[in-house]
Amino acid sequence: MSENSGAIIDFTSRTKYRGQAMNPSRPLDVLRVAATFAGTIIGAGFASGQEIAQFFASYGPPGLAGIVVASILFAWLGGGLLELGHRLRATAYPQVIYHLCGYRLGLILDLVTAVFLFTALAVMLAGAATVLRDYFGMPYLDGLVGAGLLIILTVLCGVRGIAAANMVVTPLLVLSILGISIYSMSYHDFEVSLLIDLEAINPPAPNWLLGSLLYVSYNLVISSTVLVPLGNSLPGRKTRLLGGAIGGLTLGLLAACIAVVIMIHSPGILDHEVPILQLATSQSPTSSILYALTLLAAMYTTAIASLYGCSAKVQSVLSLSPLVSAGAITALALICGQAGFSNLIRLLFPLFGYATLFFTAKLAWLMYRDS
User: Fold this and answer.
1) Cβ neighbours of 310 (radius 10 Å)
2) What's the mean pLDDT in 137-157?
3) How many CB atoms lie within 10 A of CB 205?
4) Taking Cα atoms as reference points, which of 226, 196, 214, 195 lies closest to residue 35?
């Protein structure tokens, strides 16, 4: 099927798929899908606390309801992206964008997505170099180039290489975030009265529900860069849907932990660009180093998804080899990667959320129609 196809594929087709046995899910494949989904979204913005502070904690206690909504949508629509990637036999995310949005709107969203992915890659590279310099004493340029080479090598391994990397990195992210959050809540004898409105943050949307939808929308498009081709490679429908559900619910649990910790430590914690790393530093020097490593891992997972999506797009337009495409994009990102990721989250992420709302709505409608 061509990328500009506007036709709708039935998720429960009773013609082509009638009578075919459903492939059973294998636990390892389910975990691989869940880890890839969660690891792609748990980028530096998520793990630093900035994204959660902006899109959820900024609304105070009602923001926790937004996390519940986001978790449910991730669990449902993440599996939908995997399923749609499989049904379309899609090898890259633009095929799903054009399928859901039509040619004209899809063309605009495709371009916006490519720019956003490149920007995210540049910021993750700069952030990784900064952490390596400030916490591990590595010269900034060495850290920048080293991070770029590692990301290129991972992307050249294809979607299975990215999934394998997430199988290693995502458990580290989950355990680190849970450990620091649980320790903080137990240390402060957590009570509901500690959850407060964060007046120091201007919310990205007028209310918590729209803020939650914006967050889900742009993250679904980002994760589609990996989930779409991954879904194409997975034969078992149960594996796709269950992996998406576990990944989405994991994201919700971690987001809730971070939001609660930020609220009970406000307003002082909001003076820092990386709130959760500051919290880890206040707990112990060991926690500080461990969470610095966690942030590097988060930047790594975001960067490989961003480069994979960008590279696939450039290859399709310019007919470049994977190595040349990934190398050229990374080199340009190294030059441009001087902006702080907190500014990216505050200014660009909400705009991208609005730009991708139609994509999310169309995916939800398609899944509801064919469920």
Assistant:
1) 28
2) 88
3) 20
4) 226
pTM of the model: 0.82
Angle between helices 103-136 and 140-156 (to 10 degrees): 130
**Distance (Å, whole) CA 225 – CA 162:** 11
Q: How far is CA 298 from CA 47, 127, 335, in A?
A: 7, 10, 21
Residue 357 pLDDT grade (very low, low, confident, very high; cuts 50, 70, 90)? very high
**Residue 41 tokens, joined:** 């979204």
CA-nearest of 295, 307, 296 to 331 is 307
Q: 């458990």: which residue's tokens?
A: 171
Task: Give pLDDT, residue 364.
Answer: 94
- The dihedral over CA atoms of 253, 254, 256, 260, expressed in degrees to the nearest 10, equals 140
List the chain domain ranges: 27-370
Task: Determine the Cα–Cα distance for residues 174 and 47; give it in Å rounded to an integer.
Answer: 9
Rounded distance between C-alpha atoms, residue 315 and residue 340, angstroms = 28
Please provide residue 102's backbone torsions phi and psi, each rounded to the nearest 5 degrees. Answer: 80, 175
Share of the chain above pLDDT 90, in %: 28
Phi, psi of 312 (to 5 degrees): -60, -40
| Domain 27-370, architecture per CATH | Orthogonal Bundle (1.10)
DSSP at 20:
P
Q: What mean pLDDT comes out for the span 62-82?
A: 94
